[in-house]
Amino acid sequence: MSTSSTINFPTPPPHSMHRRAALEMLFSAFSFSIMNLVVHALKDHLAWQVIPFMRFLPTMLIAIASARMHGVPLVFRGTKMLWARSFTGSIALLCTFYALTHMSITDTVTILQLSPLWVAVILAVFFREHTPRSTWFYIAMALCGVLIMQRPAFDGESFPFFVAMSGAMVIALAKVFLSRCHNIAPIAVVAHYTSCATLVSFFLAMTARSNWVVHADFQPWMWLAVIPLGIGGTLGQLFMTRAYAHGNTNMVSLMGLSLIAYGVIYDYAFWGVVPDTLKVVGITIIIIAVALSIRSNTKAQAIKEPVEEGEA
Question: Rg of the chain's alpha carbons, rounded to an integer?
């Protein structure tokens, strides 16, 4: 008579999974911050239209290779929701890169953190989802913070600010569309999105033609910036996906606010930019409003699939 035994490995306790997710999200934010740093550093050397193509191409190649390696079929035609996610995601990243090359890192990433609030607006206005009154209060609070932080003059010089605000709204759209792509493998969605973004950014780069280099001091070795640019964006997306899979959505979203801290550090360390009192007050109000909105656990925050926040 033979007997067999089964070894049952213990399931990690919830707090362990949450701690793991928090660490993954912090590493994701750090990776995205490196991408933001490189983009901002290239603003005086390369035409902004070229930088998105440098960002998307390596990620597309990695996503396609990963899908093939794991036997995941690539999606070419796709659904309307997939195309909407890929198109809005591409536009969102273009807005992000334009803002990063025309504004400080801190200002750009702070404004982009408004995207969870815009998700609530989109779901309420276009999908008739119930939105608690507290969420509308947080939205008004965040917009007041933006006005205090930026003090826009509503002239030509404020154009990058409006691009960043538009980017936050389009990121929210991309999140909504992404939440309706459940029947498609995540890596296939990423491959489709990055392929679309690479194509769009290629045509955008072609508009600059021979004016890709905008500074006479640009050296050929500076093209190596594509390496940290691509790696930062790819790792940021990877670890963000893992974090949302392992932890509480609201907690992981809160960790994403650390991008603002990285922006402040980089602006000061590399460009000597010190925010004035009003800017600090505005940023603080925005962080509090977004954090309270995330913790309110509305349906707008129930979307688990991440999108890059400058990743989109």
Answer: 20
How many whole angstroms separate alpha carbon 236 and alpha carbon 109? 14
Helix (H, G, I), strand (E, B) or coil at 170: helix
pTM tops 0.90: no
What stretches of 42-158 show up as alpha helix (H) in DSSP?
51-69, 80-100, 105-112, 115-126, 133-150
Q: Which alpha helices (DSSP H) does the chain contain, by range?
A: 14-41, 51-69, 80-100, 105-112, 115-126, 133-150, 159-178, 186-208, 226-246, 249-255, 258-271, 277-295
CB atoms within 10 A of CB 137: 13
In sequence order, what are the residues at sequence separation of 6 or more whose Cβ sits closer than 8 angstroms to the Cβ of residue 67?
A: 73, 74, 185, 187, 188, 191
Q: How far is CA 105 from CA 194, 236, 260, in A?
A: 23, 17, 8
- What gap in Å lies between CA 163 and CA 147, rounded to an integer? 15
Q: Give residue 225's identity as a one-letter amino acid code.
A: A
Q: 129 falls in which pLDDT band (50, 70, 90)?
A: confident
pLDDT tens figures, 58-89: 888 988 998 899 898 988 888 898 999 999 99
Strand partners for 213 = 46
Helix (H, G, I), strand (E, B) or coil at 105: helix
Residue indicated by tokens 């750009």: 108
Task: Give the C-alpha separation, 111 to 147, whole Å.
Answer: 11
Give how far the C-alpha of residue 39 lies from the chain's centroid of Cα atoms, to the nearest Å.
Answer: 14
Residue 311: the pLDDT is: 47
Alpha carbons 300 and 256: distance in angstroms, whole number: 16
DSSP category for residue 247: S
Query: Alpha-carbon distance 137 to 139, whole Å?
Result: 5
Q: Torsion-angle region of residue 13: left (phi > 0), alpha (psi -120 to 50) or beta?
A: beta
310 near 112, Cβ under 8 Å? yes
Give the type of residue at 245.
A
Give the whole-angstrom CA distance, residue 62 versus residue 230. Answer: 10
